[in-house]
Design brief:
Pfam family, one: ADH_N
InterPro entries: ADH-like_C, ADH-like_N, ER, GroES-like_sf, NAD(P)-bd_dom_sf, Quin_OxRdtase/zeta-crystal_CS, Zn-ADH-like_protein
CATH class of the largest domain: Alpha Beta
Helix content: 25-40%
Number of domains: 2
Enzyme class: oxidoreductase
Order of helices and strands: EHEEHEEEEHHEHEHEHEHEHEHHEHE
CATH topology of the largest domain: Rossmann fold
Distance between the termini: 23 Å
Number of helices: 12
Protein name: NADPH:quinone oxidoreductase family protein
Oligomer: single chain
Number of strands: 15
Radius of gyration: 19 Å
GO molecular function: oxidoreductase activity
Structural class: alpha/beta
CATH architecture of the largest domain: 3-Layer(aba) Sandwich
Strand content: 15-25%
C-alpha cells in the first residue's frame, strides 16, 4: 500500500515522504480499516515537528482522524493507532473505540466530525455549560476547530461572535452562521466584542489559539464568564494573570478531549450520539473546504500548519471515496 512516512522531524512539507509500505497488522483488540477519508488536523503538523504531546517512534505515518471501512463493510469513524496513522491506504484502530459514521455525512465530512466536534461539544457543554441566549466568542472561527464551535454554539441557541484573520476567512465565518464577525487585522477585538455586547463581554470564550488571542479573551470575557482553553495554534502558551480572574470573577477551563477516551469513553459515545442527531437534523455539517488525493497530503498538512486553510482539508486515498455509503 501507499503511505506517507516521517523519518526525521521538521516541517511537514519537507519531512513527509510518500512510499510503499506493508499493510499494518492489527494487534489484540484492533481492526484493519481501509481509509476512505483522512482529515488533516493541526496535531499532524506538530507531530511532524516533534512538538506534540504524543511522539510516535520514527518512522511514523501522520493522520489522527479517519473515516474508514471495516473488512465486513461498515463505515466507521476512528483514531488510528500510531505510528500507523491515516495518511495511507490502510490503518488500524482499536475496535472498542470505533464509532458509526453518520448516514447524513459523506466520508470527508464524517472524518471531520470527530476530534473538532467532540472537542467543541465537551468544551462548550461539559466544561463551560453554554446556555441558550448567552454570547459565545470563538477565536479562529473559520478554522477546523473554530468552525465546529461556531456551529455547535448556534445549535445551542447562543449568539456567536467569530474572530478571524482576513476578509476571506470573514466571509467563511459569516457563511458558518456567526452573528458578528471581527477581522482582527482590521479591528480591535476587545473593543469590537464590547461594542457587540453592549459593554458586557462574552459569556463563553472558545480559544484554540492562545498567545495574543488569550490576552484578548481575558479582556473580553463577561462577569462570571468562562474561557475554554483548547489549544495553542499561535505557538505561544500564555501565562494567565490569576489576580485578573479573581477580580473579574471569570473561570479559566482547560479542555483536553483525548483524556475522555480513557477516563470516560461512554461519555465520548454519548457525545457522538448527540453529534449524529445534530447532523441528521442539519444543525451541524463539517466545513470541508478541500478534498485532495493521497499524493497531496504533505502539502495539505503544511498549509494547515501555516494557517492558510479554512474549515477542514480531507485526504481521499481513493478518488471514488468522499460520498456517503
Amino acid at each position: 500500500m501507499q503511505a506517507w512516512q516521517v523519518h526525521e522531524l521538521g516541517e511537514p512539507g519537507e519531512v513527509m515522504r510518500l512510499a510503499e509500505a506493508a499493510r499494518p497488522a492489527p494487534g489484540d483488540g484492533q481492526v484493519l480499516l481501509k481509509v476512505r477519508a483522512a482529515n488533516v488536523n493541526f496535531p499532524d503538523a506538530l507531530m511532524c515537528r516533534g512538538q506534540y504531546q504524543v511522539r510516535p517512534p520514527l518512522p511514523f505515518t501522520p493522520g489522527v482522524e479517519i473515516c474508514g471501512e471495516t473488512e465486513d463493510g461498515r463505515r466507521v469513524i476512528a483514531n488510528p493507532v500510531l505510528p500507523c496513522g491515516g495518511f495511507a491506504e490502510y490503518a488500524v484502530a482499536d475496535a472498542a473505540a470505533l464509532l458509526p459514521a453518520p448516514d447524513a455525512l459523506d466520508d470527508a465530512e464524517a472524518a471531520a466530525l470527530h476530534i473538532g466536534y467532540q472537542t467543541g461539544w465537551f468544551g462548550l457543554h461539559r466544561r463551560a455549560g453554554l446556555e441558550a441566549g448567552e454570547t459565545l466568542l470563538v477565536h479562529a472561527a473559520a478554522g477546523g476547530v473554530g468552525s465546529a464551535a461556531v456551529q455547535l454554539g448556534k445549535a445551542a441557541g447562543a449568539t456567536v461572535i467569530g474572530v478571524v484573520g482576513g476578509a476571506a476567512k470573514a466571509s467563511v465565518a459569516r457563511e458558518l452562521g456567526c452573528d458578528v464577525v471581527i477581522d482582527r487585522r482590521e479591528r480591535d477585538v476587545v473593543a469590537a466584542v464590547k461594542e457587540a455586547t453592549g459593554g458586557r463581554g462574552a459569556d463563553v470564550v472558545y480559544d484554540p489559539v492562545g498567545g495574543p488571542a488569550y490576552a484578548q479573551s481575558a479582556k473580553a470575557v463577561a462577569f462570571e464568564g468562562r474561557i475554554v482553553v483548547v489549544g495553542f495554534a499561535s505557538g505561544s502558551i500564555p501565562s494567565p494573570a490569576l489576580n485578573h480572574a479573581l477580580v473579574k470573577n471569570y473561570a479559566i477551563l482547560g479542555l483536553h478531549w483525548g483524556l475522555y477516551n480513557t477516563r470516560n469513553p461512554e461519555l465520548v459515545r454519548h457525545c457522538h450520539e448527540q453529534l449524529t442527531d445534530l447532523a441528521a437534523r442539519g444543525a451541524i455539517k463539517p466545513l470541508v473546504s478541500e478534498r485532495v488525493p493521497l499524493a497531496g497530503a504533505a502539502d495539505a498538512v503544511q498549509r494547515v500548519a501555516d494557517g492558510v486553510t479554512t474549515g477542514r482539508v480531507a485526504v481521499l486515498p481513493s478518488p471514488e471515496n468522499g460520498a456517503a455509503a
